[in-house]
Amino acid sequence: MRPQVLNPLFAETETLDGVGPKLKKPLERLGLRRVKDIAYHLPERFVTRRVINTVDDAGEGEQIIVKLTVTEHRGGRGGRTPYRVLAQDGAGNVIALTYFGRASFSAKKQLPVGTTRWVAGKLERYGDMLQIVHPDHVVEEGSDTVQRLCEPVYRLSEGLTQPKIAGLVEQALATAPELPEWIERSHADATGWPDWREALRLAHRSEHSEARNRLAYDELLANSLALMLVRADNRKRMGQPLRGDGSYRGKLDLPFPLTGAQKRSIAEIEDDMAQEAPMLRLLQGDVGAGKTVVALEAMLIAVEAGAQAAMLAPTEILARQHYESVRRMAEPTGARIALLTGRDKGKAREATLIALLDGSIDIVIGTHAIFQDKVAYRNLAMVVIDEQHRFGVGQRLMLASKGKRAPHVLAMTATPIPRTLTLAQYGELDVSKLDELPPGRQAIDTVVMGPEKIGLLVDRLAAQMAEGRQSYWVCPMVRETEGPEEIAAAEARFASLEQRFGSDVVLVHGQLSPETKDAAMERFARGDAKLLVATTVIEVGVDVPNATLMVIEQAERFGLSQLHQLRGRVGRGSERSVCILLRGDTLSETARERLSLMRETQDGFQLAEEDLRLRGGGELLGTRQSGDTPFTIASLEQMSQLLPKAYDDARVMMERDGGLEGKRGEAARILLYLFERDFGVRTLRGG
Ligand code: ADP
Ligand code: MG
């Protein structure tokens, strides 16, 4: 049970003054559901302002506070004309306060002609006019708001304003209790880190790096501790040594010889699985390196040893595809293979569940449905997780708790993960690398095109289709999880392409009914449809060798690794393939650099490194890559700086303090609950 001291932090946001149903929505859009989420909603940055008497003393682009007297209102005549309030500073200079859209209503109220106001905001030039667009503050003379020379800037969503969120943060901080210290005294002293509550307060006040680091460290420590607790629990339960006799693997129908890297990885896995300690191994291999067949061999080892194996895919589409290809290859072996997804209902599902329980299914492939509570196995001893970065730690743990003994786990990813990241996601784990692509793969020509070429591009598509070749068209990504804007973009693109190509085009996105989505995917996979318009749901794993053209719209919005994943959907057959990066009208420097890197290299490892470098460089990408890190407080930079230390500290706590015993252990327990890593605590009790 959650320690009582944390209760105020875990209260709903509605317990704060001013939060009702209306404000709840925009808060939730930011992921802020409880008081603690608001307390941890740290500023994105701070603005520092200067009080000036006249704009003559200020530079363009400067954040200023100035006293202005309102002289005139110029109403926007609808459309694109903004609403302007003209005002004079002490020296008689005229400055326009410019408002777009509904913001003009508040301008009318706050700035009647003839009044004098303190105005804070960024001074800009527009033609030969000086202006402040949407001032941050407009206050009457004598108000103390003017004193805020340094002010936090929070991430907002529609319906929220800076003052509103700042007010909520203020309240949330006031409810924050004193917590016992979980950080080693000597470490806190050496770094000058404030205690938890003080750190939280300071982090909202200014760019206080000690405070920020402490809060990040807390999160990293909580995560490291939780992983270690789970690992300790796993070890206690022991795994099942699995030795195969090759009877199934020998009958596999592979249309190709294995590469050296595949053979080596299989040998490493085989060694691990023969041990009593449960395997925890990551199989890293670039897109198209052939991870599926490695997984299949590993699963057959389990079958040969008389146990069951399961393969977890991140999406329905991928689960189906894996099922088809695994079944095809494994047909002659006689292994009994089933597909289980959230979509299976009623009798069919019952039958599968019974077969899993009585052992008449050897291998099950599916989405997370295969690890739901109701699903029980006769003897599950081996688990493969495909494209693991899609899964949260929670899901991995849920699956590890399935058997009486801990199953051997093979996680597979095409995204090369730096060590700090694997440490964050798994703790220590072993890695096998597929550093060799199957022979005969051709480089994919990568071309960047401006939006004006879209007509030509569509003609090229037509030619491609006339030759019987297939293509993908991926629509822009607006945020991490697919939202209405992505769907709308894909639907609009689909509508226009459908006008030209009719039923040769199919559409797939996350909000279609599963049946519709499947039907579309199947038509495309069979070759009945020639063009697949999609959101990023097709990002991982889909394998249609006849597809040779990939169009990615607004490619600059995607991260490098993601573009690489998407590009990897083509170039899977013997035909030459092309990837077209359709860019938007204007590009930032970093975006330009990203697109040209894509043109220059096909090496996923290099792209992943560059990705980290570019992001480390500060520019916020249009999109965050899904599941990059399991952290919400610690940045990438803080992670690489502080994680090794946090990990070591967690180990010391585990070894010296026997997990969560004693006084410091009590504090650590609070920490785990604070960061919702309390499943670690639960394994302690369960074991
Ligand atoms: P990924 O590593 O991206 O998951 P897949 O397992 O989907 O890659 O394999 C990509 C394609 O390469 C598949 O069509 C697969 O049949 C093929 N393939 C896998 N291994 C080999 C090999 N050794 N030689 C030739 N083709 C291979
Ligand atoms: Mg794959």
What can you see in these coordinates?
This protein has a 7-stranded parallel β-sheet, sandwiched between helices. α8 (209-237) crosses α21 (636-656), α8 (209-237) runs parallel beside α23 and α9 (260-273) runs parallel beside α10 (291-304). Mean pLDDT is 86; it is low at 617-627. The chain has 687 residues and is an alpha/beta fold. Among the domains are: 50-148, Nucleic acid-binding proteins (OB fold (Dihydrolipoamide Acetyltransferase, E2P)); 249-434, P-loop containing nucleotide triphosphate hydrolases (Rossmann fold, 3-Layer(aba) Sandwich); 445-601, P-loop containing nucleotide triphosphate hydrolases (Rossmann fold, 3-Layer(aba) Sandwich), CATH 3.40.50. It is built from 23 helices and 22 strands. Bound molecules: adenosine-5'-diphosphate (ADP) and magnesium ion. Residues 256, 258-259, 262, 285, 287-293, 414, 438, 541, 543, 545, 572 line the site of adenosine-5'-diphosphate (ADP).
